[in-house]
Structure formats: structure tokens, C-alpha cells
Design goal:
With 568 residues, the protein is an alpha/beta fold. The chain has helices at residues 4-14, 20-33, 37-43, 49-60, 74-77, 82-88, 110-120, 131-142, 161-176, 184-199, 235-245, 306-317, 333-344, 378-386, 401-411, 428-436, 440-446, 471-476, 515-522, 527-537, 543-552, 558-564; strands spanning 90-96, 99-104, 123-128, 202-209, 213-220, 223-231, 257-265, 268-279, 282-291, 321-326, 351-355, 366-369, 392-395, 416-421, 447-459, 465-467, 487-489, 501-512. The strands form four sheets. It has a seven-stranded mixed sheet, sandwiched between helices. The protein has a six-stranded antiparallel sheet with strand order 6-5-4-9-8-7, covered by helices on one side. It is elongated.
């Protein structure tokens, strides 16, 4: 049988796509440097990859497949070890009895087929696929397998930091000195970055191309901290690898792109949502860590005071009505809503969400993502959801009158509706809905409870120190602490990486709608009137007061509370 190179050459000559001199020269160069002949044809722009694959499919009478339109079965695909998949550029697609269908860039490679037969003990049926699609599928399939190093526990976290930095430096050095096609060094860099960010409880990883370096920053407890400055030479390989892992177009750097990938470390599964923003000098990439463990924390651990948690739990147990969570971006609204959904997620209930984008992917919940380009907005998606006989609906955000109106009416016809708004406090959500154009009687009838929240950093319990606030500060805050109250200040130690804080918690304002509030809403009362009634008659604890109570208990500092709340 003719070799793969000879068969390709014959096809190209017969179609007058290339001359014999061109092909002989490339064959000699391919044999000399060990590079793939087909890859060199594509790189020299003699023929496009898609056209070459189509021609070879006809010539060899081998079916052609596009992996972009094929859903890989990880169980079948991983019958072939990563080493062999990368070595021969192939990936297993499906198994039927004693036959295994394998997508190959070179279906005439008898050595590859023999190795697969010996490994799997079944017959191999090759199908033709482009090398690019196979490489992308391999990266996506085996991305989670490369992250096998477990996370150290809290006691070991600081002790190994120097070793981690050395590992990162070693990986960078290997990548800079790399001459072959192996991607092991860039994989190691990303692995160390991911493991380090998870160990430090970061919520985001920022990769920012600069003039001379690639800056890597972690967002830890809401603050960005510079972690590494990598040589400019590693930028292209690193960002391209991340785009491949996220299923993004590696040739597109002019438009924003969004993707995601998943990793598993020991028993911990984390989704990474990836955003690529074009900029001068490359593209800024932000990876948001979406830890599935956050979904099971429960309402009791979100930061509720005892008097507020009962009101919230009562509202969640009601079969219909609306619960709104308000606050600025990054205040933990999504975590609160997902905690509620997780609590309500039972086989007897039909839970549906419409989000932009889907934050956490939760088993047992039907989740829909907004796609404005094809006409799927919050409003149109919500109409479709209502025809699915839902028990609980979660709307990522109420942005306009149409969405608000449909959501209100849905909450009156037997569904529990959960959603978010951007307002400064809980009572302001009422006037915001009315300003959108929703009739006051609809707001009064449908809304059961509104919660406003912010996130504050929690004091590190290993290094915090007691202190006495000045009388002027207490007066300014209208704070009259109990005699046994103890305030603490942040100090900093190795355990909290010298920040004085470790982790975050919510400060929460819970506003329950009663008959008097409904009367005020229908009469179009001002938000300050509604808030005044809620504080005096319903016992609502405003955001700042809730934060000050937690500062009195030594959970956070007065500075943190002042920074995220306004004067009442």
C-alpha cells in the first residue's frame, strides 16, 4: 500500500492543486524534520484543511466527520490513553460490540491501528477528521485529567508556597526553552495557576498582557492581588491553550469570546467560566471559578441573623409568590439564589431557570441561557418556561418591564419566582419595579420578600487582635455596643497571606411584605416611607446595622462594614 504522503501527493497532482516539485520538496523537508506532511501543506497555504480532508475522504472512501457537531462520550474516548491519542492524533468516538470507531487525521497509519487493536482488543473502524478538530477535542477531553494534584489542607497551605513558585518558574523555563511540539510545560503552568488560585480561595484569575510581561492576578475576597509576572514569550502559548480548553476559536482575537471548562481535584469539581476581551497587545482573559461546593452551604451559612433567617425560610416554603435578592454586581446574589434552588431541588418539583450566563450547572434543574442573537431574551424565555408546568422559576435578572410583568403574573398563578435586581436597599426594589412600568397592585400582590445584601471580608481568626473604637467613631456610627462586645482589627499572618482576612460573608437586609406595606405600594408611597415602616413596625435590620452587629461579634471589622454600606 502507498504511504499517506504518496496518496496525498497523488490526489493533489491529479487535481492540479500543487506541482510535483512543490510536493517533493515538502516530502523531503517533512522526512528531515519529522513534521507532519499534511500539516505543512496547510501551513504553506497550498490547500485548506477542510478541503484536504474532504478530498482524502473521497479518495480513500473513508467517512468524514466533524467533531464540532459530535458529542463525545468521555467513557468511550478515554479507552485510548492520552499519550496514544496525542502521539497518533486520534480520538475514540463510539463502540459497537467488538468494534471501535476512531476519528483519525491519518487513517492509513497502520502502526496506530495496530497499537489500538492491541490495547483495546477490538477491531478499529477509522473515520477521517481534521487534525485541528482532533487536537481541540483531545485538549477538552483530557484537560480535567491533567489536574491531579490534590489541594493541601489549611495547615499546609503556607508551607508549600515556595515550592509552588519554583514549580511555576520551572514550567515557564521549560516553555521558553521548548523546541518540540509537546505542550507539557504550558499545561503545567495552567495546572499550577489553577491549583494555586483554588488553594488561595480566589474567585477569579486575571491574565493581562502588558508591554513586557503577562501579569497574573487573583481576586481574593473581592480584592485583586498580583500573583505572577510571566515572560511575554509565554503569552501566546498560554492564552491559546486556555482558549482550546474553553472550546473557543483560537484564530479570533478581534471579538470578545466566552467559554467554559471543568476540572476535578480529588473529590472537588470546579467550573471555570472564561471571558476573552480583545485589547492592544493580545487579549485579556478572565477565568471565574464556580465551585459546586458553594451550592451546598445552605441558607444558615450565608450570613443571616437568627431573626432574618426565619422570615426567609418561611418565604421559601410558600408555593407561590416572588422573592427578590438585590445588590450590586459581586454581592453574592447568585450564590443566595442557587442555595435556595439547591434546597428546593427535589424529584417532586419542576425547577427551571433562565440566566445570562448560566453560572452553575446543577443536576436536576433545567437551565436555559439567554441568547439575544437568536431572539432568546429573558422575556421570551420566560414565556416558554411557563408552558413547561414549572413549580419554581429562577430569573437571572429583571432588566425590563416585559420580564418584570411576566414574572409578576407568573408568581400569582402558582409558581414560586426567584430573581435579582440592582438596588441599594431592599425597599427600593418596590419603587424600581413600579418605575419600570409594573402596576403597583401587581407588585403588592406578588412580592413576598425582598433581600438586600453585600459581602464583607471575615477576620482571620488566627491573627485578629481586640481593639477599642474611639468614642467619635461610635458616635458617627450611632453605635451603642453591649458591655461584653469585643471589636477586633485585622493584623495579618501566613495563614491569611498577611491580609488579616480569610473568606467572606454576607451582611443582609430582609424586608417582608405585610398588609400595610401592600397599602403603601398601591398608594405609590416613596421608598423612604416603606423603609421607615419596615424598620419601626416590622423590625427590619438595615444593611449597616446588620454589619455592625457582626463587627460587634468579632466576625468582621468596622472598616469593612463602613466600606460597603452607606449612612442610614
Amino acid at each position: 500500500m502507498s504511504s499517506f504522503k504518496e496518496r496525498i501527493s497523488t490526489v493533489l497532482l491529479s487535481r492540479q492543486i500543487a506541482t510535483k516539485e512543490q510536493l517533493d520538496r515538502l516530502i523531503a523537508e517533512s522526512s528531515r524534520n519529522g513534521r507532519g506532511f499534511a500539516r505543512m501543506l496547510i501551513e504553506r497555504k497550498i490547500i485548506s484543511e477542510a478541503t484536504l480532508t474532504e478530498l482524502l475522504s473521497k479518495e480513500f472512501a473513508i467517512p468524514m466527520i466533524s467533531l464540532a457537531k459530535y458529542r463525545l462520550d468521555p467513557v468511550v474516548a478515554k479507552l485510548i490513553p492520552e499519550r496514544l491519542a496525542r502521539q497518533y492524533n486520534l480520538i475514540a468516538l463510539s463502540r459497537f460490540g467488538e468494534r471501535l470507531v476512531v476519528a483519525m487525521a491519518d487513517p492509513l497509519n497502520i502502526f496506530a491501528i495496530d497499537d489500538l487493536k492491541a490495547l483495546t482488543q477490538v477491531a478499529i473502524d477509522p473515520v477521517l477528521c481534521t487534525e485541528t478538530e482532533i487536537r481541540r477535542a483531545i485538549e477538552q477531553l483530557y484537560a480535567s485529567q491533567t489536574l491531579t494534584t490534590g489541594l493541601p489542607d489549611a495547615a499546609e497551605e503556607t508551607a508549600g508556597q515556595g515550592e509552588d513558585d519554583l514549580t511555576m518558574d520551572t514550567a515557564v523555563a521549560l516553555l521558553l526553552n521548548e523546541t518540540g511540539e509537546t505542550e507539557a510545560p504550558v499545561i503545567r503552568i495552567i495546572n499550577r495557576m489553577v491549583i494555586e488560585s483554588m488553594r488561595r480561595h480566589a474567585s477569579d484569575i486575571h491574565l493581562e498582557p502588558g508591554k513586557d510581561a503577562l501579569r497574573v492576578r487573583y481576586r481574593i475576597d473581592g480584592r485583586l492581588v498580583e500573583a505572577h509576572r510571566l515572560p511575554k514569550a509565554v503569552q501566546s502559548a498560554l492564552l491559546t491553550r486556555l482558549k482550546i480548553m474553553s472550546g473557543l476559536d483560537i484564530t479570533e482575537w478581534r471579538l470578545p469570546q466566552d467559554g467554559r471548562f471543568k476540572v476535578r481535584l480529588d473529590e472537588r469539581e470546579v467550573d471555570f467560566r472564561v471571558s476573552v476581551l480583545p485589547m492592544a497587545g493580545g487579549g485579556k482573559v478572565v477565568l471565574r471559578l464556580l465551585d459546586q461546593a458553594n451550592l451546598s452551604v445552605g441558607l444558615d451559612h450565608l450570613g443571616f441573623l437568627p431573626e432574618s433567617i426565619e422570615q426567609f425560610k418561611a418565604a421559601v416554603k410558600r408555593p407561590y409568590g416572588m422573592i427578590l435578592v438585590t445588590g450590586p454586581t459581586g454581592s453574592g446574589k447568585s450564590t443566595t439564589l442557587y442555595s435556595i434552588l439547591n434546597q428546593l431541588n427535589q424529584p417532586t418539583k419542576n425547577l427551571l431557570t433562565i440566566e445570562d450566563p448560566v453560572e452553575y450547572q446543577v443536576e436536576g434543574i433545567i437551565q436555559m441561557q439567554v441568547n439575544v442573537e437568536v431572539g432568546l431574551t429573558f422575556a421570551s424565555g420566560l414565556r416558554a418556561i411557563l408552558r413547561q408546568s414549572p413549580d419554581v422559576i429562577m430569573i437571572g435578572e429583571i432588566r425590563d418591564f416585559e420580564t418584570a410583568d411576566i414574572a409578576m403574573k407568573a408568581s400569582l398563578t402558582g409558581q414560586l419566582v426567584l430573581s435579582t435586581l440592582h438596588t441599594n436597599d431592599a425597599p427600593s426594589a418596590v419603587t424600581r419595579l413600579i418605575d419600570m412600568g409594573v402596576e403597583p397592585f401587581l407588585v403588592a400582590s406578588s412580592v413576598n420578600l425582598i433581600q438586600a445584601q453585600r459581602l464583607v471580608r471575615k477576620l482571620c481568626t488566627k491573627c485578629r487582635e481586640p481593639f477599642d473604637p474611639s468614642p467619635a467613631l461610635l458616635e458617627r456610627l450611632s453605635l451603642h455596643p453591649a458591655k461584653d462586645a469585643t471589636f477586633f482589627k485585622a493584623v495579618g499572618c501566613r495563614f491569611c497571606t498577611n491580609t488579616g482576612y480569610r473568606g467572606r460573608m454576607g451582611i443582609i437586609e430582609t424586608f417582608q411584605v405585610d398588609d400595610r406595606v401592600r397599602e403603601l405600594i398601591v398608594s405609590r408611597a416613596q421608598s423612604w416611607e416603606i423603609k421607615d415602616h419596615a424598620i419601626k413596625e416590622l423590625g427590619m435590620t438595615p444593611l449597616r446595622q446588620d454589619g455592625l452587629k457582626k463587627a460587634e461579634r468579632g466576625v468582621t471589622t468596622l472598616e469593612e462594614v463602613i466600606a460597603v454600606t452607606s449612612d442610614e
